[in-house]
Structures are given as C-alpha cells and as structure tokens.
Specification:
The complex is a heterodimer of chains A (354) and B (651). With 354 residues, chain A is of the alpha/beta class. Chain A has twelve helices and twelve strands. Chain A is globular, with a radius of gyration of 23 Å. The chains are: A alpha/beta (354), B alpha/beta (651).
Chain lengths: 354, 651
C-alpha cells in the first residue's frame, strides 16, 4: 500500500529513459559465490525486480560491508561501494542524507549487521534514514570459514565453538522493531515470488526498510532453513503474513494466531468454529510495534517453527533525510542564503588604517 | 600574532623581561577627587583563576573581547579541568584563563602573569608558582577562611603569614562587595554571589582602561530572558569598576595603547582556533562550490567545530551527529562518494576509532578531511590539555601502506588557512587529508585580519562526466582508477552521472579498471602509486628565517610556532644568531627540507611529544636533529625555549 509520502520521496529519484530489463542491472563482473549459495537467488531476484522501479540506473547505489553477501554491489551495474566490516549503514547514511536524488541500498549479513556493525544498524533504523537494508541471514560466518554468528542457535558446534556456542542469538526482526524501525520484513532466498513482493514493499517505503532474508550457506550451514522450504514441513512452520488478512497457516489454514486476553501475548492455536473470530488480523500499519514484536517472538529460535514471513511492520514516520533537508531550507529562509563575507566579519571588529 | 617571523628591531615583547612603562604623576581634578596615576605599559599578562564554577572562562572571554575591540594585539590560554564541576575549592577544580595583550605584535599568551586574580585559596595555590615576584595578586579574601584554606593545605592564611611579601597583594572581599552591590535586586545570597566574577572583571577593566560597552551589551543579550539577572551582572560589573576607581588600594591604572603599528591595514576581529577552522571549512565549501558534510561525534576539544558548523545550515552545510566516531567518518566518506566535501572532526581517541575508515578512504581515493584537535594522550589522557603526540598516528596509524597528507596550523587564526589548504589537497589529489590542530590552538584566540571573500583560493574541481578510456576495440569506457598523469588523482564520478556506473571498495583494485585484483604485481604497483601520489603533492618550499647566517636551526610544527618565535626573538635581541623554520606540511614534507636541514650544524626540534617530528626527519634525511620535549599538557614557555636554544647554540 504505497502512500502519498512514499511516492513523493521516490519522485526525487530520476526515472529511467526507456524500458529496462534484468540485463541492464548485471555488471560485467564474474559472480564468485560458492556454487549453490543462496546469494545467487537473491541477486537474481534483485536484478529481476529493479526494472520494475523504473529508476535511472545511475541514481541507484548499493553499499555493502564485509562478508560473502557484501560482494553484492560488484555484480550490480549501478553505482556501488564495497566498504568495511559493519560500517555500510553509516556510509549509506552520509550518501542518502546528502543526495536525496539517489535510491540507496545496503547489503549486509548477520555478522556484518548484527555483530561488528550492530550499532550502526540500530541507529540507522531509529533515525529512519531513507535506506533499503537487505540483511542476508545465514546464521553462520561464511567468509571466515564457518564460525558461529550472532543469529546461530545456542549450542552450535563450529570451529570456534567445538563444545557448542554459548550466546543466545538475536532475532533480527525483534531487534529492528525494538530499534524503532518503521519497516521490517522477512523473506526467504528460495521463494522468488515472496522475496520480490517484499523487495517491492521495501522500495516503496519512505525511510529505513529492513528486510531479513533467510539465506542458505550450503558450505558451512547447509539446510539451516530447510524446515521453512521443504513443502510439507513449511506449511506447519511458516506463518505468511499479509496485511488485512487473518493470520492463519498450516494445512488448510488449520492453525491461527490468537491473543491471550489475560496476558496480551500471542499464541498459535488450532482454529475451530468457536475461536475463528479471535484469529488475529494482520495490521502492518499499526502505529504500535507491540503486536509485530509479539509475532516476531512466535518463532522458535532453534527449530524455526512458527516463523512469520512477510511485512511485519510498515508505518510512516518522519524521514531523517527529509528533516535534515528541511532544516537547511528553514535556515536559509530565516537567515537568507549564507553570506561568507558577513560570516567572517562577525559583529565585533576594528579597523587598522595604514 | 599576525606578524612575520622576524621581529622589528628593538621592539618586541618577548625580547624584554620586564614590563616597562612611563609614569604620569597623580593630580587633583576639578571635582576635587584624586585622579589616579595612569601608567603606560607596552604589554600585560593577566591570569584569572578560580573554581571551575566561578565563571573564569567567561570572564577571560569578556576581557579578551574588550581588549580586542580596543585594538591591542593579544593571545590567550584557557586552562580548565576535564570535569564539568570538579569538587569545589580543590586544586584539581581550578580553572584559569590567561591573556597577554600589548601595544605591539605578540606571539604567545605569555610565560608569567603580571597580574593574578585568585578567586579562592585553591586558585592562589595552583597558580602562585607561575607568578613572578613583584607581580600584582588580587585575592578574594572572603574565601580565605579556615575550611577552604584547609582543603588545599594552607594551615595559616597565606595573606597573613608573610609568604606573599614579595608580591603586590590586593586583598579584596569580592563576594561581600558583590552581595552588597546587588542588595537592591532581591536576589538570594547564592544568586548574588554568582556575579562576583563580573565584579572582578569590572575591577580589571578599570585597571587597564578597557572599554565596557561590549560587556554590558553582552550581559544583556546573554540573560535576555532573565532581565533581573542581566541587570544584576551589569551592576556587579560597574561596582567592580567603581571600586577600582575609588578605593585607595588601587592607586594606579594602566594603559596599553592599541597595537596599530603591529598590524597591516585591514579589518580585524578576535578569533579562536576552532572558530577559524569552522569558518575555513565553510569557506572551502564555497570556494569548491561543493556542499560541506560534517560527520562527527562529540569529543573534547573538537566539539566546538560541530557546534559552530551546525549553526550555518544556510550555507548548505550538513552536520550529522553520529552514533560513534566510526559512523561520523563513515557518513562523511559516504557523502564524499556522493560529491560533498566530506569532513570529520575529532581528537586522538576518535582518530584511533576512525583508522580503518581512513584506510578505506585511502583505498577509495576520495577527498575527505580528518580534523584532529590533539589533546593529551594516551587513551583518554588529558582531554582538556594540549599535546602534539598524534603526529605518528596520523602518519602511520593504519594497516597496510596507507599514506595520508598532513597539514598543521601554527596559530589560532591560521586554522582558517590550514582548512582551505587541506581542502585543496583533498580535492586536487582525491585523498583523505589530516589537519592536526591541538587544544591550545583550538581554545586560544588572537586578532585575525578578516580576509576578503573574493581573495580566497579557487578550489573548484571537476567531476567526471564521460568515458575516459578507449579499449583496443575502440569502445569508449569509464575507468574509475585511470589517473591524471600530473596529479595521479583518479576521476571523481559521482552517482547520478549516466554511463559512469562503477563499483569501488577496500579490496585491492586493478590499475585503471578498478576491478578486484589479487595479482601480486598489480598490488605492488598500486601500493607504490598511492604513495607516489601523496609524495607528489605540491606544497610550498620551507621558508627559513635566518637574517644573520646562523649555524643552528630551530624547526617546529603546529602550535609551537608562537613560543618558538618568541624565544628566537629573545635570543636575537640578546645578540645570538639562530635560524627558524616552521612546517605546515608534515606529509609530504616540503621539497627543500632536506637541503635546509643539511645547511646547519645543529637542528633543534622542540615538540609537545617525545620527539615524533625529530624521528621522522632523522629517518628521512639522516640528520642528527636534537629533540627537545615537553609533554605536560601546556604549551612551551618562551623563556624555557630560549634557554634551551641558547645552550644548543653555545654547545
């Protein structure tokens, strides 16, 4: 549901002349991810979806940090920067806030965004800078060859944790909601259609959009999301959220999410004639993040059962870049365009005559 | 401090130790009151000292403004603790402000105060060692009671035990007098007491015949929302003035004539280093016709630049207070990628955090200004004190071979020109540039001849607009790392330019195309060419001030310029022969530096660190430079340097 403000912000980015195709967004660089990596699917989805936006290619910029996913910009035939570990949101913030005519995308991973760059991520979200952040979550460190990540399940056996990892994982969606994010969504690498629909919603959103993409690392954490992909099991494990629709899943929509009237918490129930009316209707635009947060907590961190995907939250609130720009305009309106001579002279001068 | 390096013969403050003056005898005026004696002085050093809550910095600032508008040359040294309100009445809580003003050109805030204003026993105790015998000391006697004295270890009152006999002590019950003067204002005792700094300012303003309108106007505007408080402060200020005029303890007032001869024709203002630097950045944006983008995180003593720039959004200046130091420089670099003049401001600890991003900027070859207002280190160190110990950090504090040009201002006002120069290098050579100021320059102030905006250097640069390379098959392409043959700078192609879409990053790039390359020979080439680019930056030759063919050279950089020049003047006035040179560019060094150094038997390098510049020149030029160091958080004193240099000449 793109709103007026969203259109207004998108208007600042020049439109492409003529029709674009997926090919236009492929760079001449050879893609060097491991064969079978989930990143390929995401790259294809992004390249395939970009022409839909109809934006001038030269006004699109991809900024990334460090990690497997952060090679992404090299493969996009747009402007791009492959920066340093964890810092992409800060670099993108400088770019987006100084150039409102650009569509700025951040590509990051679970280590990049949630470990070394956690601080930048939460602050970009709370400021609501006009960035689209694609967080590739594979629950493992791939580029450094297989250490556990901040989204790995407790007890994960890896090279750095031969007796099992000790730390409780982050749930990126819960984290983003807690950081005042105005748009939070989750999708899965292998579901091209769903991924594209979520990307579309993110692109339409004015402000920071965080999209968590469950992405399979077939080398170091293969099958991490199998339960969400395997047709039979996924039906019971995945909760597909759609704005305005009752939250039901499972075979024939046999399961639903209801609110406990006593605690206010959400739970999954078998839908019956009696409780059918109590099944929650998803409201992504609810000003309060409380229900979205409760939804994000339904997933079991270990088994990923009851993982909601789709747009959990999409609300409008002031966009940092616009506010910053407004202040510049207001200052000019109040004091006139800056006059350097007057500034340098100040109010308290004396003159020496020769 | 706007002077040339060589001093006009015979007339230089730092050449003479004593304050000379001519006297006028007192006479009775027509009203029958005694018109007090007025002595003419050529220069005075005043130090206001009190508790950190006593408003000493404000008092000093006001006296400075009065002095500046009167037309004296001046130089200031604020000195305060890192704690916002250190425990009251203690030695660590003492805050002071020293001001040196003269009827001629001066270079430093002065070594030793002629007048000390001590608002409490702690202020007296903390400062007395710097006060030469015979100097005036004005003390607030109200504070010299048992407890405040005991707090700083005075068993007996120093005002009564004879320990101050060598000084000209003026005991003044400043607190009582202030409360008395304000009794009609209906303020509480505590509120009234707060104006005692204005009483002291009034007294000093009378002693030195300062104009008062500026201070009164300042108070009324500062307390515009509390007119009662404004008027109370004005009343205290006037009471202080009248006290000087009427009381017999102050028999003499002084006159320091405007320094009209010391200054070239022009319009002047007083300016601190951080303000000059802020203006320099705004001017650089205007001269480059680029929007300025400051990404910064608050840190002492650099925060004032963030504050100042955020006031000037009508110049198109964007200021972004980031979540941390890393995000500050990250945002600045992101803005630079987008075509802004990216700037980050910080101090030593912040530079440490920014190091990785500076390395990225070296690799991306984008223009970026890194402003380091150095303070005492290591770690948190001495946040409010000055030091020059970040030179090697700026030079080498990154992984890999990551050369960054370094520019250093020499006086507070020079921060303006240094900012423009740093921007010139960054924009011309597409490189991050360090500007190394320090706490002393940042907070100190001096008169500044306001430049004509039209006379500022042209810093305009060209963004890439089309293909710059032809492939073998005749295809025209854009190569982001194809260099300008003269400057070795790469093209700056900003997003939004059709046809120049490209990707850059911190991974090694292939020469020309900018594509990822792990080729050994290519890496070797790229490392060398990045170094060659910085080595080839055009900087002016080092000027040497050597009027008499000396055998000893004193070489400095940054804020030591004032004390070194003052010391050199003293030596020359005493008949010694010494040459002086001061570096603005620390990387690359001026082309002629090696030759200059080899022209002298002895090279002395005074630094507020353990010899970092000395190490660089010894390594690069194989010159046996002699290092002289002080790392106590304070600038050198001219006398101290004169002694050291004299020994070096004689040795």
């Amino acid at each position: 549901m793109p709103d007026a403000n969203a259109n207004e912000l998108l208007q600042l980015v020049p439109k492409a002349e003529g029709k674009q195709s997926m090919k236009d967004f492929k760079s001449d660089q050879e893609v060097r991810w491991c064969p079978g990596c989930g990143d390929y699917a995401v790259l294809a989805a992004v390249q395939g979806f970009m022409p839909e936006l109809g934006l001038a290619r030269e006004n699109i910029t991809f900024v990334s940090g460090i990690g497997c996913s952060s090679r992404f910009p090299y493969y996009m035939n747009t402007y791009g920067m492959h920066s340093i570990h964890g810092r992409a949101p800060s670099i993108a913030t400088g770019l987006a806030t100084s150039r409102r005519d650009l569509s700025v995308w951040v590509v990051t991973g679970d280590g990049d965004a949630l470990s070394i760059g956690g601080n930048h991520l939460i602050h970009a979200l709370r400021r609501n800078v006009n960035l689209k952040i694609l967080l590739f979550n594979n629950r493992i460190y791939g580029l450094t060859k297989g250490q556990y990540s901040p989204t790995s399940e407790v007890g994960k056996i890896t090279k750095s944790t031969p007796m099992g990892s000790l730390d409780a994982p982050f749930n990126p969606v819960s984290l983003a909601l807690g950081a005042e994010a105005s748009f939070v969504a989750r999708t899965v690498d292998s579901d091209r259609k769903h991924l594209t629909s979520v990307l579309r919603a993110a692109a339409d959103h004015p402000g920071t959009a965080l999209v968590e993409i469950y992405q399979n690392c077939n080398i170091f954490n293969d099958g991490a999301f199998e339960v969400l992909k395997d047709k039979e099991r996924a039906e019971e494990a995945v909760i597909r959220l759609e704005h305005g629709k009752p939250i039901r899943f499972g075979a024939d929509g046999g399961k639903g999410v209801v609110r406990d009237p006593l605690t206010g918490d959400l739970s999954v129930v078998a839908v019956t004639e009696e409780n059918q009316s109590r099944v929650l209707v998803h409201d992504a635009h609810n000003p309060s993040p409380t229900t979205a947060f409760a939804l994000s907590r339904l997933a079991d961190a270990d088994t990923l059962h009851h993982t909601p995907i789709g747009v959990l939250r999409s609300v409008e609130r002031p966009v940092y870049d616009a506010l910053m720009s407004d202040q510049l305009d207001a200052a000019t309106e109040q004091h006139g365009k800056g006059d350097l001579s007057a500034l340098l002279a100040g109010n308290d001068t004396w003159t020496v005559v020769g | 401090m706007t002077s040339q390096v060589s001093s006009p013969a015979g007339k230089s403050d730092e050449a003479s130790e004593a304050v000379v003056g001519e006297q006028r005898a007192p006479h009775i005026d027509r009203t029958g009151a005694i018109e007090k004696e007025v002595r003419r002085l050529d220069r005075v050093i005043i130090r206001f000292a009190g508790d950190s809550g006593d408003g000493m910095q404000l008092t000093g600032d006001r006296f400075t403004s009065e002095t500046a508008s009167f037309g004296n040359d001046l130089s200031t040294l604020p000195n305060f603790p890192a704690e916002i309100r250190a425990p009251a009445g203690t030695l660590p809580g003492v805050s002071s402000f020293q001001l040196h003003f003269a009827d001629h050109d001066i270079l430093t805030p002065g070594d030793a105060p002629n007048v000390l204003v001590a608002m409490n026993p702690a202020a007296l105790k903390a400062n007395i060692a710097d006060v030469p015998r015979g100097a005036d000391i004005i003390v607030n006697t109200d504070e010299f009671t048992k407890r405040p004295m005991a707090k700083v270890g005075y068993d007996e009152s120093p005002l009564e035990d004879g320990s101050l006999e060598a000084y000209n002590v003026h005991p003044v019950p400043l607190t009582t007098l202030t409360i008395e003067a304000l009794k009609e204002f209906g303020l509480s005792r505590k509120e009234a007491e707060r104006s005692k700094n204005m009483f002291a300012l009034g007294l000093l303003s009378w002693m030195y015949n300062r104009p008062t309108e500026g201070t009164e106007a300042f108070l009324r505007s500062k307390f515009a929302r509390k007119p009662d408080i404004a008027e109370a402060n004005v009343a205290a200020f006037r009471a202080g003035w009248n006290f000087g005029e009427t009381t017999e303890d102050f028999a003499v007032s002084y006159e320091v004539a405007p320094a009209s001869q010391a200054f070239p024709t022009g319009t002047y203002r007083n300016i601190s280093g951080n303000l000059a630097l802020s203006y320099g950045l705004i001017a650089a944006g205007r001269q480059a016709e680029l929007p300025v983008y400051l990404g910064s995180y608050p840190i002492t003593p650099a925060s004032d630049i963030l504050h100042e720039l955020s006031k000037h959004k009508n110049f198109g200046v964007r200021t972004f207070q980031a979540e941390d130091e890393i995000a500050g420089i990250g945002a600045a670099l992101g803005a630079a990628f987008g075509g802004s003049l990216g700037v980050t401001t910080t101090s030593g600890p912040g530079v440490a955090l920014k190091s990785e991003t500076i390395g990225l900027a070296v690799s991306l070859e984008l223009p970026l200004l890194i402003i380091d207002i150095q303070r005492g280190g290591p770690s948190t160190g001495l946040p409010t004190k000055t030091e020059q110990a970040d030179l090697l950090q700026a030079m080498y504090g990154r992984n890999g071979e990551a050369p960054v040009p370094i520019v250093a201002p020499r006086t507070p006002a020079d921060c303006f020109d240094a900012a423009l120069d740093a921007a010139r290098i960054a924009l011309t050579y597409r490189t991050p540039v360090f500007l190394l100021s320090d706490g002393y320059l940042a907070n100190g102030s001096e008169p500044w001849r306001i430049p004509e905006a039209d006379s500022l250097p042209d810093l305009r640069t060209q963004f890439a607009s089309g293909p710059n390379h032809e492939l073998a098959d005749g295809t025209e392409v854009f190569w982001p790392y194809k260099r300008d043959p003269e400057t070795l700078a790469r093209p700056w192609a900003v997003p939004g330019t059709p046809g120049l879409e490209h990707r850059i990053g911190g991974i090694e790039k292939q020469d020309g195309t900018g594509n990822i390359s792990y080729d050994p020979a290519n890496h070797d080439f790229m490392v060398r060419i990045r170094q060659a680019k910085v080595d080839g930056i055009e900087v002016p030759d080092l000027e040497v001030d050597d009027p008499a063919g000396a055998r000893t050279l004193v070489l400095g950089w940054g804020s030591t310029y004032g004390p070194i020049t003052a010391a050199v003047r003293r030596l020359r006035a005493g008949g010694e022969s010494i040459a002086q040179a001061h570096l603005r560019h620390l990387n690359p060094f001026p082309r002629n530096l090696g030759e200059v150094l080899k022209g002298y038997d002895k090279v002395v390098v005074p630094e507020m660190n353990l010899g970092q510049l000395a190490m660089l020149i010894r390594a690069k030029y194989l010159v046996d430079a002699q290092s002289y160091n002080q790392v106590n958080g304070m600038p050198f004193k001219a006398e101290q340097l004169a002694t050291v240099l004299k020994e070096a000449i004689g040795a």
